Amino acid sequence: MADKTVSLEIKRQASPDDPAVWETFELEWRPGMNVISAMMEIAANPVTAAGKPTTPVTYDSNCLEEICGSCAMRINGKARMACSSLVDNLEQPIRVEPLSKFPLVRDLQVDRSVLFENLKKVKAWVPIDGTYDLGSGPRILPQQQEASYPLSNCISCTCCMEVCPQFSVDTGFVGAATIAQVKLFNDNPIGKVFKEERLRALAGDGGVQECGFAQNCVEVCPKGIPLTSAISDVSRDVMLQKAKDFFRS
Amino acid sequence: MAAPRIIVVGGGLAGLAAVIKIAEAGGTVDLFSIVPVKRSHSVCAQGGINAAKNLKGEGDTTDKHFDDTIYGGDFLANQSPVKAMCEAGPGIIDLLDRMGVTFNRTPEGLLDFRRFGGTLYNRTAFAGATTGQQLLYALDEQVRRFEAEGKVKKYEGWEFLSAILDSKGTARGITALDLRTMELRAFKSDAIIIATGGIGAIFGKSTNSVACTGSAQAALYQQGVYYANGEFIQVHPTCIPGEDKLRLMSESARGEGGRVWVPRKSGDSRPFKQIPESDRWYFLEEWYPKYGNLVPRDVATRAIHKVVYEHGLGIDGQPMVYLDLSHIDRATLDRKLGGILDIYEKFVGDDPHDVPMKIFPGMHYTMGGLWVDVNQMTNIPGVFAAGECEYQYHGANRLGANSLLSCIFGGFRSGPNALEYAKSLPAADGDGGEAAEIARQTTINNALLNNKGTENPFKLWRELGNVMTEHVTVIRYNKGLQQADDKVVELLDRYKNVNLSDKSQWANTSFAFARQLKNMLELSRVVALGALNRDESRGAHFKPDFPDRNDERFLKTTKASFTASGPAFKYEEVDTQFIKPRPRRYDAAK
Questions:
Q1: CB spacing of B243 vs A37 below 8 angstroms
Q2: Complex confidence, ipTM
Q3: Does B110 touch chain A (CB under 8 A)?
Q4: A153: which chain B residues are within 8 Å (Cβ-Cβ)?
Q5: Which domains does chain A carry?
Q6: Contact: B501, A148; criterion CB under 8 Å
Q7: Nearest to A140 among B109, B134, B346 (CB)
Q8: CA A201, CA A198: separation in Å to the nearest integer?
Q9: Residue A88, class by beta-carbon neighbours within 10 Å (0-12 exposed, 13-18 middle, 19+ buried)?
Q10: Is the pTM of this model over 0.95?
Q11: What percent of chain B has pLDDT over 70?
């Protein structure tokens, strides 16, 4: 056995209807190890620290470069991406659990499709006329690009939703990620053609006023997206839109 | 007749581009993807997308882009499709711009361009260092719009298993596996577009995402589709070695002025800052004065290998060299390379603004793939392919920032062509082969679940990755290639004794992986034996025993077809009608 080992406790649940159990694993330490590489080790040798054979852990992952947004989970109580969670920076035993605010599928895998549905509701796209050749796009000054670019870096990991006190599948609050996308598309010279519709979609129940300004979202975002300032900007625009709609009616 | 129904498999740039064209033309699409499409591997592309917009007053033209691409690919690519791609480039950039991609801008508000490898022109449009992510999101958003309009139905979390072929060998649909319920199902369609990306997993660790196993391509190859130029594997010169994968450090780091060097003295243990310029060896700049650090990837990769293994000058005796950005000011780096520098810092712990990065080559891209004709259709009628999973745009070596272009261009071509094909497709006889294909897949699944052997599929996979990386990447010897194939044959035999530690029927990732593994093994033979047969050096394929390009024998496309005893190879003439093959060298202007 190697001198140095890594200890993990992983919350296992075979299906939504099965009970959750914790399993402990002792692995050989290797330089540069992260939580995903640890789970790859377990898959190659699925035996618990107590020597009991078990199954490889089910979890979502793809790029392992913190850009696809797949591998969000709770690690030592914090919502974060497993691929960039380096074992050397974590207190052991490393406790790994699924995100708690989304329907569980199995083990560390949850169903986060609610975010993609939300993006549909707010029309998070630029409505181009067509893909045929229509010449170049609008000129955009570097300052505007630099303001929009961070918002377009959102990887849909849903960490911001997991840590939000207001968000749950039941409250229907859209969450910070979707609100930031509304800002991104409302700031686009062509995307803003849907500005009023997007703001109205965020005006009712589950809309931007559900935000309680806990600011957890901005702290947890792995991409450092300015979520709270996006929320305040969109809040203000929603208020203005409500006022406009009130006087129009 | 009912409107044609098209299935697209894969939701990266190529797949989404195809979906958009079909939906726009009034067709309906079923889109299958292992992961939610927004998490596809295209997000990993960093540096940019090429198009000869000539916005820098350099006199760049699409003809020059065409020549750079053909020359960079060592003349192996058929020239007509490459020419068409380069000509379409500027229009594609304009379209992406209109879709709202946050491309970097010049002070006047125009698109900014930077230089990439294998060219002397600033031809690469970019959005920070996350261009693939931004492009994928733009297409994902357009597809979401069509989804909201009911023109696209997504099957995310489904894995393609096979094509359904009728008695005449024409595609009539697919079989797929629901990765959550483990349900096997048949889906009818009039044409299929395969856009399933790369094959990195056959090399164990690579820059590719977990989903890039090549399993879909390999399944189709076993059903009769030719696999073309499989031996051409791009090893990216600058990766961050890791336990779980090799993380890409974008070519844009060099495009923005990054310099590759090692200490001149072996075992020089001084911190890098105390090593004066005179004791640093900028070997790429010395060997290739015209292109410097921006030689094509195969050339840079071999140079790094040589410095580490022949000169023994790897940093601290390890297989690593410096990629240095620390001479560039912080604000510029943040504006142009922010995303990738953060990644380096997160995964390695050093800040590349201050400290040179330590990098080494890693498997990155397959130039080879499913054989397609100029309409993007394979030799199985009704099966189309686009993106990295097909072979036709990059020849023997792909230039940086041409992949995003080829994905979108190939996707845009395949969509309308598939629709056109589907419109004139006669109705299938009977069930079009559906019941037989479901029965075949059920047999495979049951055999796997009931197997009582002793082999762990993840361990077999590691052995595969090790042997493929050792013998079938940067430097290739026939003896080693033969060893690699022998090993793969052994693994195929041991695969028969695979025992799943998880036999459940709910979100069983081991089961899905074991199915992919069989396909990976079959595909590995195509790559290794294709390389064994090609006794020359061309682009990324380098044999020290055959150091020259041999146009007389090998200016040919390799076409592998599956047989029960392994791949059978034949060769096809290359279309060289526009640019006459000439020697490829980067130590001087071409």
A1: yes
A2: 0.97
A3: yes
A4: 130, 133, 339
A5: 5-110 (3.10.20.30), 113-248 (1.10.1060.10)
A6: no
A7: B109
A8: 5
A9: exposed
A10: yes
A11: 100
